[in-house]
Amino acid sequence: MNMNLYGHNNNWLMVDCGVTFRSPLDRIDDQNPSAKLFDMIAPDPVFIENRQESLCGIIITHAHEDHVGALPALWNKFKCPIYTTKFTAEVLRRKLYMTDIAELVKIIVVEPGSKIDIGPFTITWLSITHSLPDAQALFIQTAVGSIFHTADWKIDFNPITDQPFNAAPFKQLAKLKPTAMVCDSTNALRPGYSLSEGDCELGLLRTVQQCQGRAIVTCFGSNVARLISLARVAAKTGRYMTLLGRSLENMYSIARSTGYWPDELKISHRRDIGYLPKHEVLIVATGSQGETRAALGRLAGDSHPDCEVESGDTVIFSSITIPGNEKAIDKMVESLKTKGLTVIQSAQSKHTIHASGHPNEHDLRDMYEWVSPKVAIPVHGEPQHLQANALIAQKQGVQKQLVGLNGDLFQLAPSIKIIKNAVKVGRIDITEVNKSIKS
């Protein structure tokens, strides 16, 4: 649920504007175990809403929901141009298509590697590997200091959807003496390097080769790299692949329209899949987090209109369990096993069937060494992840580490410090706003 603000000389730049799903407005903890859950939650933008005239623009680094999903509901509070790359721009256009603001939103498509001015900020766009096309890191320069904003990333030399990771542009940043590096901390506690999407493709191939009946793979709907890998697996194993779930179909369509889907990889229509021999079927379904209304949930409940699953079929979870979803996933797994299906979850698989899009300890170590910022500002994670990121930066010789919380102001000039609770922050429910936009 990312929303970052960079300020200089009474001007502001927003980086990302995301949502989270099925969450409370307050944190769930031992004192509040039964907090009400809302379908769609966004950061409360009241601080910048009250300074709308000072907001120069919004940059979206990539097309994941936690970075772009709140814009249709919140853009009227900002009313400024949006800058992003072509794949993300198409995702955003489709989100806006059914709204009454689609014609008002100015989307400026930026080429990776470009250098543009937005108010007093000079932005260099740096391609970085993640789990979908066109992900970008940003080098933000002002008259008094500069920031390297990593967004979501990892080092991946076989990322499936983009060019292999290239360290050269990040090594060049060191010559510009960045004031700070604002860095993804999600996997900072994991040793070694992050797994490649290419490794995941090989693991999925070996897993599907062992399936006797239908192979049903569930994954995150926005993971285009995983979809391409599974289409290759289907071709190599002589199976017809179909997509069950609107988010998967939408991402496939966007990948095709923006040139990221290989022409030779074919997708079968979901209505045809029920007539094919079981051993010739590979289904990719939404619902990896146990959502009963998603495609996998409907298959488990015998309520999907296009296909039924039965004993001898295999369900493969090419995903991780997001904290908080354990009970829902366990319930779905039990339901599938009761029907006689084999269930393979990534944590128990002998093959690599899921790869995270975020940096492990060694990825972080290398990036800090290449960029050599004066200050490390860990973001995107729980407190233990931020602290682990800061310790890695310290070991790599970064002079200062600033670890803060939502609402803290990180001052980088003229002096370097954190001003605690400088901005009132919180969460807002945008579920009804989105419903009214779509109606």
From TrEMBL:
<keyword id="KW-0479">Metal-binding</keyword>
<dbReference type="GO" id="GO:0046872">
    <property type="term" value="F:metal ion binding"/>
</dbReference>
<dbReference type="InterPro" id="IPR036866">
    <property type="entry name" value="RibonucZ/Hydroxyglut_hydro"/>
</dbReference>
<dbReference type="Pfam" id="PF00753">
    <property type="entry name" value="Lactamase_B"/>
</dbReference>
<dbReference type="InterPro" id="IPR011108">
    <property type="entry name" value="RMMBL"/>
</dbReference>
<dbReference type="InterPro" id="IPR042173">
    <property type="entry name" value="RNase_J_2"/>
</dbReference>
<keyword id="KW-0694">RNA-binding</keyword>
<keyword id="KW-0378">Hydrolase</keyword>
<dbReference type="Pfam" id="PF22505">
    <property type="entry name" value="RNase_J_b_CASP"/>
</dbReference>
<dbReference type="Pfam" id="PF07521">
    <property type="entry name" value="RMMBL"/>
</dbReference>
<dbReference type="GO" id="GO:0004527">
    <property type="term" value="F:exonuclease activity"/>
</dbReference>
<keyword id="KW-0269">Exonuclease</keyword>
<dbReference type="GO" id="GO:0003723">
    <property type="term" value="F:RNA binding"/>
</dbReference>
<dbReference type="InterPro" id="IPR001279">
    <property type="entry name" value="Metallo-B-lactamas"/>
</dbReference>
<protein>
    <submittedName>
        <fullName>Metallo-beta-lactamase family protein</fullName>
    </submittedName>
</protein>
<keyword id="KW-0540">Nuclease</keyword>
<keyword id="KW-0862">Zinc</keyword>
<dbReference type="InterPro" id="IPR055132">
    <property type="entry name" value="RNase_J_b_CASP"/>
</dbReference>
<feature type="domain" description="Metallo-beta-lactamase">
    <location>
        <begin position="1"/>
        <end position="204"/>
    </location>
</feature>
